[in-house]
Amino acid sequence: MPGGLDTWDDLPRKDCKLPSPRPTHAAAAAEAAAAAPTGRPAWNTNRNLVVTHPLLSLLESCASFRRLLQLHALLTVSGLAAHRFPASRILAFCALSDPPRLAHASAVLAQAEAAAPPGRPNAYMFATMMRAFLRASLPCSALALFRRILRERLPADVRTFVFAVKAAASSSASSGEAVHCVALKRGFLAQSVLVGNALVHLYASGASLPDARKVFDEMLERDVVSWTTLLDGYARGGSPDEAWRVFCSMVVMEGLRPNGVTLVAAASAVRQMGLLGLAKTVRQCIAESGISVSVNLENALVDMFGKCGCVASAREVFDGIVAKDAYSWTSMVNAYAKCGDLENAARLFQDMPRRNVISWSCMIAAHAQANQPDEAVRMFKEMLAAGIEPIDATLVSVSSACAQLGSLDFGRWIYNTYIVGNKIDLTVNLGNALIDMFAKCGDVGGASRLSHASNVSNSLYIC
Questions:
Q1: What is the per-residue pLDDT for 324?
Q2: What's the first-to-final CA gap in the chain, in angstroms?
Q3: Of 139, 141, 213, 276, which is most buried by a Cβ count within 10 Å?
């Protein structure tokens, strides 16, 4: 999210010159100052603004909604609330505080719109209101305000379009295309890398990678975020080869220094390709870049080396993680399991401080794939006894174990409990596993009925 005040219209930059509070309110202002907290509150992310007016200084350090209401009252009776800058800061508090205060923000914006021209809202205020809607998970309200801004020719800037794109990402594909058209028409796409980045993210996260690439190629200016967004889109979209080409173009041809997010995406691409040589290249790039390595990046490296079959490198990275989380442990367990080293996988699994459904599913799958169905079913029952509910991937492995054991009764219990009971959606992989289980356990009629009843029957088969 863009920050700072670089493009705010009509906002004082330093030593804001606004009317002093009336003498009759000096005591109230002094009392408020005495009760005001020190330091900069979380909502106030601006580091460039210098405010010397006593009431406005209190507003900048305000940390509670109750205090804001008191300051708003003082600003109103002193006449300052009618000015654009104080109104914009009250609006910023309402939008960026936790939780957002939408009702008060809307009232402040409406009051500003009814004011005389010098106090009318600028682009920053409208964008801030859109941001408030987004933080409150109301993207449709943000888009409605954006449409009103366009329809009534209200002030708009880069932030307006960035927030509109973010709102469209949580709405429909047509909304995103409409915002894209308006941004192109008004020249914001050519003016700002922020709008371009937002559009690339919109299309990449919506599985429309050709459109993401088209926007990326048309951008006049690209930064690390632009390249990382496209790279991550390809990696998440199952195109690791293209993701790696983007990474190489960024680092080698453009000479840009990757950040931690870039390297996580690159590691994900290499993990999917399973090429150890590229995995070593990613690790070398991290060492040469000198960036601060986060636990997310370390986890990605463990996962990458594990999928590339190099357990020694995965363990080396794992042992170096200072603050291991559940994903760190699960990735290392999975690395051992994928290489068939169930002894070390089980030992590490037992050492885990906290086990989640992913770690349990990993071990169940490892035993099922190693022709140890009894152990897979035993671990599944142990997982349920621990109060952990399975996911579809867990049931795929347990169904495979039931098929190996010929355990039709337990297989039917799984089907009735989780599929008929609507606890887990029937995916293609799970449907295939259940049909395979019914058929191998001798219930061909059950397998056939499941195939015909399933909404994914075209992708299912019976062994």
A1: 92
A2: 51
A3: 139
Residues 6+ apart with CB under 8 A from 73: none
Q: Mean pLDDT for each consecutive 10-residue tract of the chain (463 residues)?
A: 35 41 46 53 79 86 90 91 90 90 92 81 92 94 94 91 93 87 90 94 90 94 96 95 97 93 96 96 91 93 94 95 92 90 93 92 93 95 95 95 95 93 91 93 88 58 41
Residue 405's Cβ-side half-sphere holds a number of Cα atoms within 13 Å equal to 21
For the beta carbon of residue 210, count every other beta carbon within 10 angstroms.
Answer: 7
3-class secondary structure per residue, the chain: CCCCCCCCCCCCCECCCCCCCCHHHHHHHHHHHHHCCCCCCCCCCCCCCECCCHHHHHHHCCCCHHHHHHHHHHHHHHCHHHCHHHHHHHHHHHHHCCCCCHHHHHHHHHHHHCCCHHHCCCHHHHHHHHHHHHHCCCHHHHHHHHHHHHHCCCCCCHHHHHHHHHHHHCCCHHHHHHHHHHHHHCCHHHHCHHHHHHHHHHHHHCCCHHHHHHHHHHCCCCCHHHHHHHHHHHHHCCCHHHHHHHHHHHHHHCCCCCCHHHHHHHHHHHHHHCCHHHHHHHHHHHHHHCCCCCHHHHHHHHHHHHHCCCHHHHHHHHHHCCCCCHHHHHHHHHHHHHCCCHHHHHHHHHHCCCCCHHHHHHHHHHHHHCCCHHHHHHHHHHHHHCCCCCCHHHHHHHHHHHHHHCCHHHHHHHHHHHHHCCCCCCCHHHHHHHHHHHHHCCCHHHHHHHHHHCCCHHHCCCC
Residue 360 CA to its chain's centroid (Å): 25
The answer to whether 232 touches 261, Cβ cutoff 8 Å, is: yes
How far apart are alpha carbons 272 and 47 in whole angstroms? 42
The model's pTM is 0.80
Burial 365-396 (b: 16+ CB within 10 A, else e): bbbbbeebbebbbebbeebeeeebebebbbbb
Per-residue pLDDT, 20: 46
